[in-house]
Amino acid sequence: MTNKLAFPAKKPVLAKIADSDNLFPIHRIFCVGRNYHAHAAEMGVAVDKTTQEPFYFIKDASTYVSSGSSINYPPQTANYHYEMEFVVAIGKEGFNVTEEQAEDIIFGYACGLDMTRRDLQLKARETGRPWDLGKDFEESAILAPIIPIKKTGFITQGKIELAVNGKTKQASDINLLIWNVREIIAHLSKFYHLQPGDLIYTGTPDGVGPVVQGDRIIGAIEGIGSIQLDINQN
């Protein structure tokens, strides 16, 4: 007897690559939590790199939305936040990667938005439960076209900004990451066999805040490009 699928298999999630007809198949989306001191402080916590390690949460690949999209305000939240992020796209397998080897497995970089149901995240944090309902939900991982590293070189600094309806809300520099890209890749690859198609959202600067229906979000990272998202007016 030939086995058949009970229902159609999920199609691959494909992200855009800048100035290319090729597409980037998304495998996993890793997100680094509290990776700027100023953002950690605004969330009411302190990060001591000498005694702590990075921590992560994961969004399903199906949460991907391309830059320039219009999306609905998500259900079961009254405090829906933007988080502008520097995203690293992985292009080669890597396990127990050293910091010196990290650059070798990078495919490219992109602007990203980690959209967050903040009320649900904080409720989970207060009760010691996972953040999934606050972070891993439909249309919560926004991504601009990926810029291959061969065009940018290895990036260690650059302004990262976000505005809502033309008013600047976040303004920082990726050189202020607590754990930099080399350190993140080396650390994460101790726990996971990194694969081509993995994305790493490296964390957000301070200035996070809510958006409502009808708002337009525009972000940018120096040397990488920009990202845009509209929240539908229902």
UniProtKB/TrEMBL annotation:
Q: Which SUPFAM superfamilies match?
A: FAH
Question: What GO MF annotations does this protein's record show?
Answer: acetylpyruvate hydrolase activity; metal ion binding
Q: What is this protein called?
A: Fumarylpyruvate hydrolase
- Glycoprotein as a keyword of this entry, yes or no, is no
Alphabetically list the UniProt keywords.
Hydrolase, Metal-binding, Pyruvate
| Annotated Pfam families | FAA_hydrolase
Residues covered by the Fumarylacetoacetase-like C-terminal domain: 29-228
Note whether Magnesium occurs among the keywords: no
Residue ranges of coiled coil:
none
